[in-house]
Specification:
By secondary structure, this protein is an alpha+beta fold. The protein has helices spanning about 45-50, 70, 75-90, 95-100, 100-105, 130-140, 235-245, 325-335, 360-365, and strands at about 20-25, 30-35, 40, 105-110, 115, 125, 160, 165-170, 175, 175-180, 190, 195, 200-205, 225-230, 235, 255-260, 265, 275, 295, 300-305, 310-315, 345, 370-375, 380, 390-395, 400-410. Helix content is about 15%, strand content about 25%.
């Protein structure tokens, strides 16, 4: 497909993508948006000009401040709207292509708009679905010969996180505080975390709700998933070490998580489907699935020191997950747990088998034993104040590129 709008080469936001988000211009009201190249598309303006049609579609659904009402139209309707947008921008004879006034109402350069949290998140769960990450952590903190806990290959392990502290890319945060217990200390102390870490993850967002007691099967799961975002599950490792026994992380995780602003639909990711790893031992019947539900999405992590250059420190891939997204949702609901529109389900840290594909500083530096040297000559064992961590992700195949943009956040000193 070719578009009449100029799109930079290797843009994450090609005509094959057309993700959805929430944007505003200056101090104006928010609106449902998409993006093509460097141009943000005002979907509300498209509708008011008569270029978008859909059952149930109206001005209020396209006025923000969140995508939840728009997503609630259902995947058939939202997919049809996405196809209409693609059709508009691939038809060189479309009225929008030749009507300068209409173009000025619909299109804004990305630098002219503010991007906001794309969804209101009712609930957030974080999985632990990378076998390489789980193995690395098990080697560090338990028995290297038996790194995985007995249940790990039998179900997608997860915990429920804090939805209120999920923030959109570009939102800074202060270094968190909590109880830590240094190895040489007899008693815990209250301190800002000394071991701040990122976690490279991808999260899916549900677009349909269920009633309590209902179960979503692996066959049905993708009908409930609207799209995906990049997800940085920031972690305070020293707080986590002291608090996680016996119930799991609390203050170590709930202070902030960073997501990318554009929700990339499953339709756009269709070209990147791939087979996942062989699961051995065989899973229980409710976790069995057919078809390919892994996606070949290349993932990268950068550290940018204050006033410094960006440093690529990690390359991983979404396809490395042991447990895929349909298994995650099926397991989440198998006990009758109800889900909501806008719920967010993070993958857990995505690590590969090679050291340069580890998805956290904990693994990349092996608990600080092997510091990373940056371009400016400084070293990092964990994330320092003033550092900006940037996650990027994209799929490429047969001259098709679909990307997520970035999820970035700067660490400010503790208050």
């Amino acid at each position: 497909m070719n578009t009449w709008l100029t799109v930079p080469e290797n843009s994450d936001f090609s005509i094959h993508n057309i993700p959805f988000g929430i944007a505003s211009v200056e101090e104006g009201k928010t609106f449902v948006a998409s993006i093509l190249g460097d141009h943000v598309i005002d979907c509300k303006a498209l509708f008011l000009l008569g270029y978008l049609h859909g059952q149930g579609l109206n001005e209020n659904l396209l006025s923000g401040p969140y995508l939840n009402p728009f997503i609630s139209l259902g995947k058939i309707e939202t997919s049809a709207i996405r196809k209409q947008i693609i059709s508009i921008f691939t038809d060189k004879d479309h009225p929008l292509a030749t009507h300068a006034t209409h173009r000025s109402q619909v299109l804004r350069h990305v630098q002219e708009v503010s991007l906001h949290m794309p969804v209101q998140v009712p609930n957030y769960s974080d999985f632990y679905s990378s076998i390489d990450h789980a193995t690395n952590v098990g080697k560090m903190f338990r028995d290297p010969a038996n790194a995985l806990l007995p249940n790990w290959k039998h179900m997608p392990v997860a915990y429920h996180g804090r939805a209120s502290s999920i923030t959109v890319s570009g939102t800074p945060f202060h270094r968190p505080k909590g109880q830590i217990k240094p190895p040489d200390a007899e008693l815990p102390q209250f301190s800002a975390t000394r071991l701040l870490d990122f976690e490279l993850e991808v999260a899916f967002i549900t677009g349909r709700a269920t009633q309590m007691g209902a179960q979503v099967s692996t066959e049905q799961a993708e009908d409930y998933i609207f799209g995906l975002v990049l997800f940085n599950d920031w972690s305070a490792r020293d707080i986590q070490t002291w608090e996680y026994v016996p119930l799991g992380p609390f203050l170590a995780k709930n202070f902030n998580s960073t997501i990318s602003p554009w929700v990339v639909t499953l339709d756009a990711l269709e070209p990147f489907r791939t087979a996942g790893p062989i699961q051995d031992p065989p899973v229980l019947p409710y976790l069995a699935f057919s078809g390919n539900h892994h996606f070949d999405i290349q993932l990268e992590v950068y550290i940018q020191p204050s006033q410094g250059e960006t440093n690529l420190i990690c390359k991983s891939n979404y396809k490395f997950l042991y447990w895929n997204l349909v298994q995650q949702l099926a397991h989440h609901t198998v006990n009758g747990c109800n889900i909501c529109v806008g719920d967010m389900y993070a993958s857990g840290t995505i690590s590969g088998a090679s050291p340069d594909s580890f998805g956290s500083m904990l693994e990349l530096t092996w608990r600080g034993a092997n510091p990373i040297k940056l371009k400016d000559g400084t070293e990092r064992k964990f994330i320092q104040d003033g550092d900006t961590v940037i996650l990027r992700g994209f799929g490429t195949k047969d001259n098709i590129r679909v990307g997520f943009g970035e999820a970035s956040s700067c660490v400010l000193p503790a208050l």
